[in-house]
Amino acid sequence: MTVIELDKRLVQDSYPVTELSLCQLRLMDDSRFPWLVLIPRRNGVSEIFDLDEADQQRLWHEATQVGRMLKTLAKGDKLNIASLGNVVSQLHVHVVVRRRDDAAWPAPVWGHGEAEPYDLDGLASMRDHLLAQLEALKLR
């Protein structure tokens, strides 16, 4: 398994959940939105096209499978998958479930209000739910 150094902003804004075949899966520390981040374990990568074709396919597979799982788990109305990188250039893919009644609907979640960090119980509960669902999908 390739070890990479994560951008400090990814570390401070999210919690590790597990390692998938290509990506480290992290939970964004904002309990207002079901929001995960996939970070490919490849050094020096800032764009999807920097990955070889097999890794591009693996990234898309992991993002869509994680997204489907999270949308079902969170009973969401819409799934958003995005790779922006304007602030953090290290390649990472956001997987965000949106609900019509969420704090930012229908606008993007970025820059909307103040993040509401998970408390320890909420974090542990969310991580346990995610790991159980990922195990069922055989993504771990």
UniProtKB/TrEMBL annotation:
Know the name of this protein?
A: HIT domain-containing protein
Instruction: List the molecular function annotations (GO) for this entry.
Output: catalytic activity
Recorded hits in InterPro entries, A to Z, give:
HIT-like, HIT-like_sf, HIT_Hint
Q: Indicate the segments forming the HIT domain, all copies.
A: 36-105
Matches recorded under Pfam families: HIT
